[in-house]
Specification:
Elements (H helix, E strand, L loop, with lengths): L6 E8 L6 H9 L17 E7 L2 E7 L10 H12 L6 E7 L5 H10 L6 E6 L10 H11 L4 E4 L8 H11 L17 H16 L9 E10 L2 E10 L2 H8 L4 H18 L2 E10 L7 H6 L7
Parallel strand pairs: 1-3, 1-4, 4-5, 5-6, 8-9
Antiparallel strand pairs: 2-3, 7-8
The chain binds guanosine-5'-triphosphate and magnesium ion.
Amino acid sequence: MTEAVSRCGYVAIVGRPNVGKSTLLNHILGQKLAITSRKPQTTRHTMLGIKTEEAIQAIYVDTPGLHKENEKALNRFMNKSASQALRDVDVVLFVVDRTRWTDEDQMVFDRVQYVTCPIILVVNKVDRMDDKSEVLPHLEWLTAQLPNAEVVPVSALHGRNIELLEQLIAERLPESEHFYPEDQLTDRSSRFLAAELVREKVMRQLGAEIPYQVAVEIEQFKQEGKILHIHALILVERDGQKKIIIGDGGDRLKKIGQESRLDMQKLFGSKVMLHLWVKVRRGWSDDERALSSLGYRFDD
Ligand SMILES: Nc1nc2c(ncn2[C@@H]2O[C@H](COP(=O)(O)OP(=O)(O)OP(=O)(O)O)[C@@H](O)[C@H]2O)c(=O)[nH]1
Ligand SMILES: [Mg+2]
């Protein structure tokens, strides 16, 4: 019997906001690593999710959804990170939401059409497809747009067709030694992941506007015996937002804390004591220096 060929490479997951990129990554990894929510622009930073199975190592790059409208420094940062993720990768997963095609999908398409590596067009959320008769013509139309791309309908949430997708990815990865140890899951620190979990709860629990004006900073991350002590600061832009996040008698902040702590315990495999504070830092989302001190790095 011959040994399986070792393969390894980078797989960028791109698409407009809310199409299910991070949900897809989590499903492939078999655990929750990336944060997800119903609101667009949940992911702000690119993040690696590494999956090693025997001879195959796929290094996924989750990216912020490419989007129009807002010209704040934070939005420029997100779009730039997503575009940069297309450089030097071995496979591109271009994720779209069923038969919906918007100006933002077109923006992604405009960038993706120039890549020279294999592209897989992932048509997600097929579990919610109401009118099945629209599917075939749309898949044909997509194939005509990107003739060299493979088109795969999936449901990231329910795990439909994901094995097929992973097989198509593996076949397209170059022969190579693995870049990461087989038990490494991501390039991001535990502090980063902790901050993201708090931000996810804010995204999920608050109304339309506020989540976009919130950042989370970890001030302390310390294991003492069996307990991991985490202090997180929730930064907002205005006083009114601080009140809303804290809620009546601290109710909302308590709920954000409880839910974050449960997810942290699962991810870190340790009992967690979590302390949350809310603080106003005016204009952080449109100030490159403030952004950079919060870990939004504008390198290159
Ligand atoms: N029904 C259904 N919902 C899905 C599926 N995949 C993702 N979703 C939902 O779509 C919403 C957005 O998912 P995310 O994974 O956060 O989307 P994203 O593309 O990472 O979004 P950004 O980070 O904002 O760019 C969430 O509410 C998910 O639960 C799917 O296959 N079926
Ligand atoms: Mg995301």
